[in-house]
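User: two proteins, same treatment. go.

Assistant:
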Amino acid sequence: MNSNRRKFIKNSALATAAISAFPTIMNACASPAEKVRVGLIGCRSMGFSDLQSFLKEGNNVDCVALCDVDSKILESRAADVEKLTEKRPVLYADFREMLDSPEVDAVILGTPDHWHAHQMIMALEAGKHVYVEKPMGHSIEECNAMVDAAAKYPNLAVQVGMWQRSSKHWFEASEIVKSGELGDVHLVKAWIYKGYDEPYPFMPDSEAPAHVDYNMWLGPAPQRPFNANRFHYNFRWWFDYAGGAMTDWGVHLLDFAMYAMDAGMPQKISPGGGIYYHQEGTIETPDIQQALYSYPKHTMVWECGLNPGIGPYGKGHGVAFVGQKGTLVLDRGGYQLMPDRSDAKKGPFFEEKTQSNYGDGLDEHVQNFLKCIREGGTPNASVEVGAKTAIVSEMGNIAYRVGEVIHWDDAAKKFKEDAADQLTRVNYNPKWPLPRV
């Protein structure tokens, strides 16, 4: 992006922010009937799933641009979009060129986690609405910077891809917990068991494929040789780019583990786990992990495993609220109320109940984002929601990495242990410093 363009965007954004009290969002479509022109950055996986939900809006949404560092994926997704819409989007290898385009109203960020903060902040600076995949940020510092950026551009909508925030049964279950029907809840469990049949095989470093701009893929991350075990989907298992299963699924499940308990930041975090299934050098994040979060009146336990497939209560993923009268188990499929024991005279404390999900989720999340673009309002998964859960997930990883119990000072917004506090920030490639707002 050239300096004149940046200056124009900055001045325009400041002028827009000054009149943000008006009910109409200046950079959005004027009415629900008008089109929102969307560009996707990071086309391979969840980003394209998100885009498909956008395209279900029919004539109210146009996909006008795609960007990816892998030209094969870019061409393949362009063909997919053309088949779905009978229109071919403009293709970009460099996301900054897409952000320069006045034809793009909103961007979807489906890139690896280490790109989210840079791209979200730069998109807001360019006057674009942002749908950013979870986890929102790759460090505590990044999450705070992203919240600050969104506050600077209040006329622009930012939705984090935590789509359970648009799914009714999660809130219905949470209200049961809040109601006291379970009695006092002092233990909350959240877990994900991925169920991979085999550990990742060892892969030697190699040259990056000719169709991949590997330097752009790395971007803010430290320079490393290309390795297939660190690339595409597998970026999740390396701390340079992500936080393993903890941040991949933790942001979904810990979100409601905290929401239903009206919980803020934990006072201390205890680590557990390690790499047990995989040989050295195939992954970096733990394949078995626990994190114990201590609150004044309850404990929250996170547990994950890459290779096991069945977790507590026979579920591969979920959240359990264990009360003195019974337990509520919640996952994407629905929730179940299980009385813990019976009163000798009156029978069970409450009636056992099973409720399936209502078939809502990602599509409704996208609809909510589009409504906020057109009409204003706070998205269901705001930057504050995304930051809180990403930060708590990061806390579990930080405890694991320093190998000791760590203590959070919420007033100072830092850890009491220096080694832990150092990990609230990441080391960037000098060419890609974190944008400051």
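Protein 2:
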Amino acid sequence: MIKQYPHLETERQDSVLIVRLANETARNSLTREIRYSLREVTREVQDDYSIRAIYLTGKGETFCAGGDLRMLTESRAPIERHRRFRHASTFMPQLLTLDRPVVCGVRGVAVGGGMGLAMMADSIVAGESAKFMSGFFRLGVVPDCLTLFTLPRLIGLAKARQFLYSNATWDAQEAFDNGVVSKVVPDEDVDAEGIALAHKYAQGPAEVMGIAKTIMLKSFESTLAEMMDMEDYAQVLAQSTPEFEEGLNALVEKRRPDYQGAAKEQGFSDGMPSANKE
């Protein structure tokens, strides 16, 4: 069943939540409605551990055309702009750090903030029509939507500077060659490939993968000792989950682990052990 939000819709496929930007007339630009809808959906996912992976994409021929031009031209007061970025801080870091795997499917352009949104995912499946464009300095603004955090981590500082300063555009193959995209497929296969990848992640130890994701996001600014400490605490936490018990038992019994079934059986699929349920 498809659930409608302003300029956005979701659909559940077993343990995968499909999220589609749905404002084709504005090329899925980051309108106020889309931003508020993304915040609401992100909060819902944070509270629902039966969702083990996310697939994010855009309806139509464009993934996301970046900032909403109407908003940029009409809302010029400094306090209005400040409010927009304060609101962005209520869902963008949360989406980037979500403790479940996120896959993004990109067809057509991902411009500016649209590219930033795509790079919040753990893996990007790009259609052959995909184009990743910086566009920020062409408009005379600082890169946002966490682009200055994600892009240097994905491709290195020197390449990130060159890409941003030159207002570059990468096609799907160039984005793949530079490490931004995980896979390039024909446009008509983007959703099938992206959803299949999300299901593959969902069938793995999704919550343990989320713990590892949290640590990886801290790796660039942490010392060696801090990383050792985080791995220590994370491993203890991971080995207390039903996913670890299932993985260990499957290894001993020489069978394929059923992580999703193990979490559901022990009542962890909604984030609460069955013993605490009424």
